[in-house]
Amino acid sequence: MSSQITHVNASEHTIEGWLRKRSSVFTWRRYFVSLNEKRVVNYYARLDARQPVGTIRLSRRTKVSLDPKKEGGLIVHGEKTVRFAAESRRDAVLWKEMLQGAIAGTLLEATARVASDTADPPPKSPPEEFEDFFFDPSCYALSKAIGRGSYGLVVSGRDLRAELPCAIKKIGNAFADLVDAKRIVREIRLMHRLSHPNLLRIYDCYANGLDFDEIYIVTELLQTDLHDVIYARRPLSRAHVQFFCYQLLRGLEHMHAAGVLHRDVKPGNILLNEKCELKLCDFGLARCLTTDMTEYVVTRWYRAPELLLSSSYDGAVDLWSLGCVVAEMVERRPLFGGRDVIDQIRRVASAVKAVRPRDVAQLAFVTNHKARAYVMSIEANEHYDSWADVVPKLSDSKTGLDFLSSLLRFDPANRPSASRALKHPFLYSMVQELGNAATKTAPVDLADIERCPLDRAALQQILRLNDLRYTPPPAAINNNNNNPSDDDAAAADQHPATDNNGDEQKNP
User: Fold this and answer.
1) Cα(374)–Cα(309) distance, rounded to whole angstroms?
2) Residue 222 contacts residue 278 (beta carbons within 8 Å)
3) Arithmetic mean of pLDDT, 312-316
4) Most buried by CB count within 10 Å: which residue of 90, 110, 148, 156?
5) Sign of the CA dihedral 158, 164, 167, 171?
6) In a domain, 335, yes or no
């Protein structure tokens, strides 16, 4: 039987199953939908719910079409336009036929045809591109490739044990470069240790063979990232920006409480699903505060002044990066798109000197005398008088500009912590509605990895003993995905849901 159409009754002239309904620009909620011969479509938040969340009454004038812009999408044109989405195009075609049958008064014939057509098709063999992709078919079913990079391939699939969608990243030749190998081992450890709703969750980690040439990381599956949302020119309201900032700060607050810096916060490392739930990902450059810090992090455009000027640093670097991301969401362009490190310093310093000159007056945190002298020699940007000139699309929000300026303080000592930033008036409505209770976490210990020499066998041993393991997703996640509560459904209708980044090298 189809994965979405769960019940077809030709004698009672009804069809039932799961569909997603669009509530706002980015919000799609999953509902149990029932269609009957009286041309009534009821949709319920749960399978066992007594009262529908909503009702659509069809008429002879109602039109039903497939949505060309969304895979499996359906558009019902009636008194108002309603958009649904099935799990596949095949399901969407079946639902379209049933809806048209109800409109035409021929639901009996339509249900009979659909009932004979809803048997599951025979299982498909994996596509050719997955032939060298190692996995246990009793644990995972692969779907399609969703990303490629220097590390290898990322595919979407399904965790058959948890009955949840997942993403599987293949890292080929994982130990060919031991510096990269240590980074991979560190990232896997952090993903296992850092558990928070706004940090990407790891489900599994396994290797192909004893030589560890290929490592596979299984995580949650999210549909897109913030970079694609920004540059696809999809509508982003002020509420979207606030909701994303709230979630990012929650994730960073948890990381910093565990003594971990992300060090590569940028739109491409911020994943989003259709409900605009946000997950910070890619911990390849993350470090514990207790370890020696390198001054090099990958993405230049989001690099804090203390990193550009080779000074010591702490969690404030992530807050600066967040400020750059906020401005990019609003303006739909990078805030400081420097061509190289020198140009990046010039752009940052000239802007800050123009809008807040006292921020660049002392530079006590800059220990390099030549770096300090260079910053002092940079002229203020004559086109800017305030942050409203730098980020004009935020000029209508006094609290928004104040929030942004607090994150983009040149001296890291003047930037707020993630916890303090969450209390800013710009996020007041989000905190009031969603809460601000910090999640408890213990400091992450990476001492064994940091002490480990760049030795293939030693790094493999750490991975084998500690981090090659399956972590079943909490049952609550599965229940919530399949049976959203009435409260969740109502909240979804109210909430917004939703590489050329100056990179100098790619993460493994």
Assistant:
1) 10
2) no
3) 91
4) 110
5) negative
6) yes
> Is 377 domain-assigned?
yes
Place of tokens 């560890």: 212
170 labelled ligand-binding: yes
Q: What is the pLDDT of residues 105-162, one digit of tens each?
A: 765 555 555 555 544 455 455 566 676 888 998 999 998 888 876 567 899 999 998 8
Q: pLDDT digit string (tens) for 388-408? A: 999 999 999 999 999 999 999
List pLDDT tens digits, range 469-484: 898 776 434 444 443 3
Residue 130, classed as helix, strand or coil, is helix
DSSP per-residue codes, 41-89: EEEESSTT-SS-SEEEE--TT-EEEEETTSTTEEEEESSSEEEEE-SSH
Indicate whether 99 and 237 sit together in one domain.
no
Round to whole Å and give the CA distance between 119 and 88. Answer: 14
Nearest to 31, CA basis, from 54, 62, 56, 64 = 54
Does 107 share its domain with 230?
no
User: Which runs of E-coded beta strand occur in 47-201?
Assistant: 54-57, 63-67, 73-77, 81-85, 140-149, 152-159, 164-172
Q: Are 309 and 366 in contact (CB under 8 A)?
A: yes
Structural domain contains residue 400? yes
**Dihedral sign of CA atoms 87, 34, 474, 270 in order:** positive
CATH number at residue 77: 2.30.29.30
CA torsion sign, 267 to 268 to 274 to 276? negative
Residue that is written with structure tokens 């910093």 in the block: 256
Q: Identify whether residues 96 and 233 lie together within a single domain.
A: no
Q: For position 351, which CATH number holds?
A: 1.10.510.10
DSSP bridge pairs for 75: 65, 83
Q: Could you say which DSSP state residue 15 is in?
A: E
Q: What's the angle, vertex CA 84, arms to CA 82 and CA 90, rounded to 5? A: 140
Q: Which domain holds residue 241?
A: 224-443
Q: Dihedral sign for Cα 147, 148, 149, 152, please.
A: positive
Question: What is the full DSSP assignment across 87-144?
Answer: SSHHHHHHHHHHHHHHHHT-HHHHHHHHHTT-SPPPPPPPPGGGTT----TTTEEEEE
The model's pTM: 0.70
The DSSP code for 10 is: T
Asked if 344 and 299 count as a contact pair (C-beta separation under 8 A), the reply is no
Domain count, the chain: 2
Where does 333-385 have alpha helices with state H?
341-355, 369-377
Q: Which of 443, 470, 494 is the last residue of a domain?
A: 443
User: 146, 167 in Cβ contact below 8 A?
Assistant: yes
Domain boundary among 79, 96, 115: 115
Pairing of strands 214-220, 224-225: unpaired
In this structure, the chain runs to a length of 508
Catalytic residues: 264
Chain centroid offset of residue 508 CA: 19
Q: Which amino acid is at 492?
A: A
